[in-house]
Amino acid sequence: MQTPIIVALVAATVAISGWFVTSYLSRRTSDRERGIKRKESQEALIREIIAACHTRAVYTRAHAQLDWNAMLRALAKCRSTLQSDLAKIDRQDQQQLVASVISDLDSIERHPDDFDQINILKRRIIWAVKKLADSANLKYTLPASTTEEVFFSIEDAMAIPAGDESPHA
Questions:
Q1: Beta bridge mates, 147
Q2: At what angle do helices 92-110 and 2-53 cross, to 10 degrees?
Q3: How many CA atoms lie within 13 A of 56 on its CB side?
């Protein structure tokens, strides 16, 4: 009489254990899939930030031929994009890099008459964007320095730089 009870208890234990294992494994798979999707969305976000900064307005040295209004509007658009994306970034080191770019863009907008300082700030922006790409393990090469490209409209300012005139290239 005890054997059927023991067999029933063992069968119930095996069934419950199987249910727990199946539930646990499916939960782990879902967590892993969510982690992969989150990583992909973070990578896409970093790419969006890099693309927003990859403009002539950032890579062109400040000089008298530049259309200042077009440059400032393009930099303001870049800053606005970065500000809206900043809170979506998971990693603190990446947030800090983007915050420093926002700060430098803001400084350019607030002090548009200091050519030397603008060129310094643009080089810092380029460095931070490159560092951001590296931190996300993205194989993405940005122009290493500013150029002498001239632009006269917001469309020109938002265009991708034509080339790298850096002596280090």
A1: 60
A2: 20
A3: 21
In this prediction, residue 153 has a pLDDT band, given cuts at 50, 70 and 90, of confident
Rg (CA), the chain: 26
Q: How confident is the model at residue 145 (pLDDT cuts 50, 70, 90)?
A: low
* Contact between residue 128 and residue 102 where contact means Cβ atoms under 8 Å apart: no
Task: Give me the pLDDT at residue 167, please.
Answer: 35
Spatial CB neighbours of 55, under 8 Å, sequence gap ≥ 6: 74, 78, 157, 158, 159, 160, 161
pTM exceeds cut of 0.90: no
Type of residue numbered 90: D
Three-state SS across the chain? CHHHHHHHHHHHHHHHHHHHHHHHHHHHHHHHHHHHHHHHHHHHHHHHHHHHHCCHHHHECCCCCCCHHHHHHHHHHHHHHHHHHHCCCCCHHHHHHHHHHHHHHHHHHHCCCCHHHHHHHHHHHHHHHHHHHHHCCCCCCCCCCCECCCCCCHHHHHCCCCCCCCCCC
Which of the two residues, 14 and 51, has the higher pLDDT score?
A: 51
